[in-house]
Amino acid sequence: MALKLKGDKKINNVLTIKQKSLQINLNDNIYGTFAEIGAGQETVRNFFRAGGASQTIAKAMSAYDKVFSDAIYGNEPDNRYVTENRLKKMLSYEIELIEDRIDRKEHPEKLFFSFANTVATIDFSKKFKGHGWVGFKFQLNPLEDYNEIILHIRFKQTNAQLQQETLGILGVNLIYAGFYMYDDPKAIVKSLYDNIEKDQIEVDMINFSGPRFTYVDNRLMSLQLVKNNMTDAVMFGPDGNNLLPAQELYKKNILALRGSFRPVTKVNMDIYEKSKELFFKERKVDKENTTVIFEITLANLRAEGEIDERDFLDRAVLLCSLGQYVMITNFQEYYRLVEYFSEYTKARMALAMGVYNLIQIFDEKYYRHLSGGILEAFGKLFFKDLKVYLYPLKNHDTGEFITSETLKVHPRMKELYKFFKYNGKMLDIKNFNPDIMDILSRKVHKMIMNGEEGWEEMLPQGISEIIKDQRLFGYSSRRFSNQN
Known about the structure:
alpha/beta, Rossmann fold, six-stranded mixed sheet, 19% strand, globular
């Protein structure tokens, strides 16, 4: 499909938007429709301006009025139009229409596509910067089914016109990447920011589907978004598909557990079960309106240098198998995580952690970048009725368990610690299982890697079987059999 272009020069080895648009326009086989709602027809405008668009654009439309939009794409039961469901309806409807109107016998080589977006740009008060859904449904072979790339964006600019222009550039990048970079999904993700600065727009969710993307693990694509600084947090569910954090966290009670989960152990699940019990006893916490999150920070994934994507997926597979929701964040400090949650909910929040994590929270070195230092950080961390559920730490020399009552902090932090401890901000998890306190993720991981025996008993039920069946964390049955 690729065509050699003349004219505009590349900027930093990246094609300009005009070059991308023209390359698509000059491809005789690419043919489709544009349906853009909420920010003008900014994507299709780039194709019209590039020239040669008549053989590429079947139709361009903006059904702004809700009555007209409903007449075309159907009613929305919740009366919300900037949603993933609305976007998918638009994409499917436009594809069905072009398939119905264009005779395949007369155009056997045509590759049909539909591009759509439904967005809300910045409001007049400039308090809400806006967000939207963008999607691309396309063929790479006339005899194949359609591929689909769907993403959610959040505007960062404070001018509606600039937001529209940025959205138009993003749209061209997506269409070009779909047709010309389909064999490299990671490159597709990166290319979304061609000719765009990171402070213009945020991409906080992306999902790939279709015959050319059957091998793509969308959890790994989530990781790319955080790794490439396109967003600070991504989320995926037990089925492995990426979720929109804003949608999953909206007005929810949130319980978050941070860890390496490399692999998830009986201790991790004991913290989960016991902290969940405490959380559900809290006033105003509705079990049905609660989201529990297993959070892994980018810093944790980089703990041994560069991010090992295979290692990340191994952790994700096990957590998903346990039916958990997983979040990858760029928040090394806990207060930033709480601030992020606070963008979407005013309901109750809690953090479950071990004593070691609490010690780190009271380490001043993490807050030197804040003008108010540790006091500012704690103000942000506990400004709401946030609770910390503390799982004890076993002193392996003495056999004693360190709790909030016996924990010793730096003398400078003693009074601050007492203030939060005795104001009910910290609660000890008391009904923990003492028999599993010697289990450490890094120890289990080392045993698996070295082919040692006995690690299976340290993991939740069914996890060891998955590790063996899928050869996770470097497991090798040959290594074990050679030792017997």
